[in-house]
Design goal:
Elements: E1 5-9, H1 13-25, E2 29-33, H2 36-46, E3 50-54, H3 62-70, E4 77-81, H4 86-95, E5 99-102, H5 107-126, E6 132-135, E7 138-141, E8 146-149, E9 152-154, H6 158-169, E10 174-176, H7 177-184, H8 190-209, E11 217-220, E12 224-227
Parallel strand pairs: 1-2, 1-3, 3-4, 4-5
Antiparallel strand pairs: 6-7, 7-8, 8-9, 10-12, 11-12
The structure holds calcium ion.
Length: 230
Amino acid sequence: MNKPLILVVEDDASVRNLICATLKANEYSYVTASSGAEATAQAATHNPDIILLDLGLPDIDGVQVIAQVRGWAITPIIVISARSDDSDKIAALDAGADDYLTKPFSVEELLARIRATQRRLIYMSNASPASSFENGGLKIDYAAGCVYLDGEELHLTSIEYKLLCLLAQNVGKVLTHKYITQNVWGSSWDNDIASLRVYMAALRKKLESADGEKQYIQTHIGVGYRMIRL
Ligand code: CA
């Protein structure tokens, strides 16, 4: 795969220059935008592979940019925001962002997120309508409804199985509590989110019991969960 084209949306010139210099040094190609309007125009013109998006823009909110881009493209969007507030991250993820980084961030972390997104793109482009899913020692046989960990069948409840399949279908992506509960229970009340924590703790325990070394599910406190591609 060629190095992807990255759209950098950032109104702060010093941060934008830092990101662009990092991308250039790592042989990525990029285009830039410094406002929401410019961001959607650049996204439409260049069809980038990945969008790095600041939320605090001078004209419209970054969350609106996500919603607009999601109207016609599934381009992965990594939010880079000074806002540490969970509600902003959640709004961005629920609008369709794939991941987030909180400022100040290290360039190594930024590059790691870009690489993780690239791996996900490669995986998605190779994925045929899947009859099974494999990640590290984890295997889901969708047709049989069976899950194996390091070759041993795991006994999951139907809700644990649904949760695992949802995370697997979105491997690498942070899913918010609201997204998960709406997909699994069809609702997102406070008690659904409380139940989710209980089910997720049980699921994680089953996934980690056979091999304590590997962590498949990452908790984003106050935000949601992500399955890591191993
Ligand atoms: Ca800004």
